[in-house]
Design brief:
The chain has helices at residues 3-14, 16-25, 35-40, 45-55; strands spanning 27-28, 33-34. It is mainly alpha-helical.
């Protein structure tokens, strides 16, 4: 997952205004960081996206991000 795909998926899932708040302020327990901090540390965008999905209980069909292909296909 490219960073641009990650950002698009986050904005489409949480809305343009709330996405920046989620990335900046929500503590991801599994990564011991916010999404922005994890990305800055070099954690792959796909891992950060999946951590967000877990934390916010995003249903499986939406975990690929709207408009993104299933990475297993």
């Amino acid at each position: 997952m490219r960073l641009s795909e990650f950002r698009r998926a986050v904005e489409e899932e949480f809305g343009e205004a709330y996405a920046s708040v989620v990335l900046r302020d929500h503590w991801l327990t599994g990564l011991s960081a916010t999404a922005d901090e994890a990305l800055e540390r070099g954690v792959p965008a796909r891992a950060v996206w999946l951590a967000l999905c877990d934390e916010f209980q995003i249903p499986e069909p939406r975990r690929h991000g709207r408009g993104l292909l299933d990475p297993r296909e």
